[in-house]
Amino acid sequence: MSADGFFFAGLANPGLTNNTFGATVTSASVQQITGLNTLGVSMARIDYAPGGLNPPHTHPRATEIVFVLEGELDVGFITTDNKLFSKTIKKGEIFTFPRGLIHYQINNGKVLAAVIAGFNRQLPGTQRVANAVFASSPTVEDIVLTKTFQVGTKLVEKIKSRLPPKK
Fold first, then answer.
1. Spatial CB neighbours of 123, under 8 Å, sequence gap ≥ 6
2. Tell me, what CATH number does 49's domain have?
3. Rounded to 5°, angle at Cα 23 from 75 and 145
4. Residue 165 covered by a domain
């Protein structure tokens, strides 16, 4: 291997945010930097348009720490006791997401935001909650989703009451 196996310039520039979520994750893991193999570290850059969201997800193999480069974000994670830990973080501040817990980041500001994320694994893995539940292959049976999300119950009515009115 040469020095190039330990080099990656992919985090130098912002990622495009003109997508469904208004955010882009640019990974710097062992898949991009072969020299990270067995070293137990990786990084990512996440760029957010105003209103951009890195939707609820987990990293099954790694703890994540984010450092805000620009802007500010509302961030949070949910414990296994369903307790939400959330905070607004600004340029120069950090926040940590424990391994395997569902977490998110959203740019509620009016300007672009960006973070550098660090992970304690060379390949942390990412599983988006909505994709895992609603876009698996083969699909999860409707009866499982109906019972899980208590369709037709007070829980659904509570969720609907929090949604903005339809136009």
1. 29, 30, 31, 42, 61
2. 2.60.120.10
3. 75
4. no
Structure-block tokens of residue 116: 């550098």
Q: For residue 124, is the peptide bond before it cis, meaning its omega torsion is within 30 degrees of 0?
A: no
Query: Among 113, 145, 117, 120, which Cα is nearest to 43's?
Result: 117
Residue 27: burial class (beta carbons within 10 Å; 0-12, 13-18, 19+) = buried
Residue 77's identity, in one-letter code, is: F
- Domain range enclosing 73: 3-126
Domain count, the chain: 1
Tell me if 14 is assigned to some domain.
yes
Per-residue tens of pLDDT for the chain, all 167 residues:
899 999 999 999 999 999 999 999 999 999 999 999 999 999 999 999 999 999 999 999 999 999 999 999 999 999 999 999 999 999 999 999 999 999 999 999 999 999 999 999 999 999 999 899 888 899 888 888 888 887 767 766 776 677 666 65
